[in-house]
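testing teh design pipeline on a random one, pls ignore if ur not involved
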């Protein structure tokens, strides 16, 4: 079995265009599902095996999907009728079988399928998206835990307004004639969100005050430009008490700043740049700093090397037409 790096999207604004389709964007874990007669294997964006974490999805896929295909989609958890990424993260963190079984009953997962990459053992990634969508509809019988994503043709601006009213994270625009490009961040796929969100590398933390004094005040985060970790800001809100404890255990202090250049900050403890977190911000400044950043979650499925400064620069160009100048 050959692992497949997921196709990735660029950021953009809502648009309406013939030859494009628009899907809802869910806040979940990217998952490519490999199905054969003797095995179902789930891999995340980091190309790690996550099959053992989701016994409920394995059972649902056996029921809904015939053998010999490879699907691309998103694992999400619903709570109270809404997507609950905190519940999903609890499932993502588990390794013990007993705990996994308990959480799979308490927070059952749903696999939202949006693409098919192999059918009957044949690689169909070269086919245009609209043909793959037709094959996907023919290939899968849906159930409560395996759902084929719906989409709207052409009218991205209308769809984005509707998604906002429903409280969704955003939408995805995809060119109908596009092939599937494994591991490529392609302009054939455009992610359109309410606010800017980035996956960033933690390179340090500031000391906490008051009740946070045993923990930390803010995470110092950045993204890679070539081999240099570039500072983009401090994230001090959005953490639950549980998250404070979990993150602190994952931070390993070092003597020297991993950032180049090192930011001029007081009371910072530098750490090995191994932890990736997802952060939401109101915007990015001209200098490449996040404005009003809020922590969302840990991203164990994404390696630090994939957190690139290109995404920061792309956001600067999108809103100002200028290139970011970190410093």
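output:
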């Amino acid at each position: 079995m050959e692992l497949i790096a997921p196709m990735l999207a660029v950021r953009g604004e809502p648009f309406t265009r013939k030859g494009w389709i628009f899907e809802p964007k869910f806040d979940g874990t990217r998952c490519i599902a490999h199905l054969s007669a003797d095995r179902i294997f789930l891999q995340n964006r980091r190309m790690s095996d996550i099959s053992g974490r989701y016994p409920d999805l394995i059972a649902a896929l056996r029921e809904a999907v015939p053998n010999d295909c490879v699907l691309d989609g998103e694992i999400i958890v619903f709570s109270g009728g809404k997507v609950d990424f905190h519940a999903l993260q609890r499932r993502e963190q588990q390794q013990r079988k007993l705990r996994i079984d308990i959480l799979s009953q308490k927070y059952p997962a749903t696999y939202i399928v949006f693409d098919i990459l192999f059918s009957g053992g044949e690689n169909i990634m070269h086919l245009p998206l609209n043909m793959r969508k037709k094959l996907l509809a023919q290939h899968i019988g849906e159930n409560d835990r395996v759902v084929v994503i719906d989409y709207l043709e052409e009218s991205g601006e209308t769809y984005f307004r509707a998604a906002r009213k429903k409280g969704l994270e955003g939408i995805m625009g995809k060119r109908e004639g596009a092939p599937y490009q494994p591991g490529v961040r392609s302009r054939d796929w455009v992610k359109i969100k309410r606010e800017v969100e980035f996956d960033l590398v933690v390179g340090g933390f500031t000391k906490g005050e008051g009740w946070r004094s045993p923990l930390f005040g803010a995470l110092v985060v950045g993204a890679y430009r070539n081999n240099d970790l570039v500072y983009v800001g401090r994230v001090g809100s959005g953490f639950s008490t549980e998250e404070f404890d979990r993150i602190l255990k994952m931070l390993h202090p070092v003597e020297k700043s991993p950032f180049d250049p090192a930011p001029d900050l007081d009371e910072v403890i530098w750490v090995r740049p191994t932890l990736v977190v997802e952060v939401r911000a109101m915007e990015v400044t001209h200098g490449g700093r996040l404005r009003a950043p809020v922590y969302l979650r840990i991203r164990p499925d994404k390696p630090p090397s994939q957190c690139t400064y290109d995404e920061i620069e792309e956001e600067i160009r999108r809103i100002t037409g200028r290139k970011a100048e970190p410093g």
